[in-house]
Design goal:
heterotrimer; A alpha/beta (286); B alpha/beta (283); C mainly alpha (273); B: 283 residues; alpha/beta; Rossmann fold; 6-stranded mixed sheet; 4-stranded antiparallel sheet; 11 helices; 37% helix; C: mainly alpha; two-stranded antiparallel ribbon
Amino acid sequence: MSIIRLENVTHNYGDGTPLCVSAIKDINIEIESGELVGIIGHTGSGKSTLIQHLNGLLSPTKGRVFIEGEDIWQNKKNIKNVRFKVGLCFQYPEYQLFEETVFKDIAFGPKNMNLSEDEIKLRVLEAADFVGLSRDLLEKSPFDLSGGEKRRAAIAGVMAMKPKILVLDEPTAGLDPRGKESILNMILRYKKATGATVLLVTHNMEDVARIATKILVMNRAQVLMYDTVKNVFAHSEELEKIGLAVPQITRICRELKKRGLALDESIYTVDEACAALLPLLQKGVR
Amino acid sequence: MEKIIEYKDVTFRYEGEDEAHILPLTINGVTLNLEKGSFVAVLGRNGSGKSTLAKLTNAIHLPESGQVLVEGLDTRDEKNTDLIRRKVGMVFQNPDNQIVATIVEDDVAFGPENLGIEPKEIRRRVDDALKAVGMYDFRLAEPHKLSGGQKQRVAIAGILAMQTDSIVLDEPTAMLDPIGRREVLSTVLRLNRERGITVLMITHFMEEAAQAERVIVLDKGKVFLDGSPRDVFTQSEALKRCGLDVPQATGLAKALADSGIKIKTDVLNEEECIDAILTAYKE
Amino acid sequence: MVRDLTIGQYYPGDSLLHKTDPRVKIVLTLVFIFVIFFCKNFFSLGLMIAALLVGVFLSRVPLKMILKSMKAITFIIIITALLNLFYTTGGNVLVKYKFITITDTGVYTAIFVAVRILALIVGSTLLTYTTTPTMLTDAIEQLLKPLKVFHVPVHTLAMMMTLALRFIPTLIEEIDKIMNAQKARGADLESGGLLQRAKALVPILIPLFVSSFRRAYELAFAMECRCYTGGEGRTRMKQMKLKGLDSILIVGCAVLLGGVIALNLFFKTYNLG
């Protein structure tokens, strides 16, 4: 059974006024449990509106949202529980830190779930492990952490709710390659440990290529594609037409294929490209 | 070539909370000469000191030891501060926190107004600057309604209108989406080529640095690599050691070479990589 | 959404009112407000409404925008009108039901007060619709200049106003973001008693303060880097000079003032308040 299902979901801003715009329009999509979905698209293509529907921060103007088979708006009072089931981590989450200590800040979500003190403590420590924050940092003020540590503490605050679906909006924005790498690794760590479904909104195609199992392409308020990474990058020219970049390596392989090399069109990592090229080039040597 | 900004054995550290907490040096002995009219990119991971290096150019930060000279003026001399800021303009990372006025053209006018320039001349400069960054049609717009890339171009126009000789950009693209990044980079490149403005651009995007004439890699407050993009990016081992990546094109050529293929490895971009692979294939 | 608020917004245009010197517009708006309060009966008020309609016509601001500005204060107008309706004594009794008494004077006063408030609002929004916030603050700075003699930091105050105007939309957006982020962690902002609700604001206010301070700090750097050192030695791109148009307006307003006084005196018996 699909864990997320959207049925004809439309969201209009300024409904009933002449300035009415559809941020998302007639979205139908099913996401299977355990996937790691990369969501790509321009600023303004409807990505953030889409993800805010998953945990009920926004309600659809039309259509229905199902999480684990249940219509989340069936019982409006229950919407808070949906937010614990679908953990949403916004862009630059470090700006939401507010508690006296890192520990307390990570505990904010679990506390709102009305968990026992012991359970809260367990969850905080576990979340700190997921993001690699050492124990001595937990008693510090979040405002004394370095930029990278702040980001990790904020993500831990969402992971501590142990959501079955983890949605992250641009978690690697503004980080250097090593910082990016460590964030991606902690997402993978969380997914492996909890079996969660992960949705990752990003502009960075290399990130998507590295960790996603599927890609969802948004364009002009609608879903343009939803398929495996390989199949989506096989449409690299189409992606470029709507102004999205594909990994450099995909472009190189596409061009090589055009010039007569027998290559698969949907190569998207350097290792893959290397493996595919080696036999061809070695033949050439012989 | 004429030197425009010089770092002479510069060190700098941030102040700790109190005297007991002395922080380590952020800039640890940097000596550099930037040539007039050049386009220099500074790369480095977070905390490498690259932003600090930018802020040393116009006396926001003053060196603890050594000297920073802007067109021969020492930044440590307070009398020079105003003069230096007329020669070096700065664009910062967060586009929202550097726009002062509620209308685009008023913001661009802010700098020249501070310089006490005559109203008619300000008008001319503002129009010219907005045209140069492609924002003239938005001159009456409210800044908060613009995209990130547009806001940064307005910020650049604000510096242009002051007619500084150099522009220092401190991670101007870090908070932008790919389209905004392209807009800003192409604007800066054009200003450098067409108007001869010296550009010092701090970034952690390799693709952006690859467009510069000269790339400086900073690590732990020291100059780690310094050369043309080709010189720098082909040293993939060294780059990885200080936490940076190489472009995928370079990485592929390198990976193939490591597997025993005879292939040119000093490739920088797609075209060069494709050519190198085709050459290897034909042999 | 909060960011759709329209109070005090500028409506871009090229009309006569847009071109009028902002200093003149501010002074005339103040005079207008004063005169509205000076109107004693429907005749003098009617003259001012007619003048206002001419103003609306001259501004070329669509009627829809004007009505929008009224919408925000409908509630206040209704309340004041009702209060006047029920609490005015004197005149002929029209309705008497239990403790409610409505007199004809009450009805007149209620309408009179409602129209007066509407005129005030439309008059002042006309100013903000036709004048950019920058022009407004510049004009206020100019008008207050004489206070410099008393060591009032006029330029600093004007600059603070500009920056506040500039950052209000940014901060509203920021509040939106922070609220969403905390709601996503299960923060409950809607239910509970007063104390609980106040407590629930902490996770919103602290991040807001932290980020505002950071913004202020960065903004100060950015301003210094653009050679800002305060008001001394600054020039302005947009110069304010009184033109023929402005003097026509001033004369027009003086005539209006005279008209109101005359009508007040002439129809003395109808005077309301």
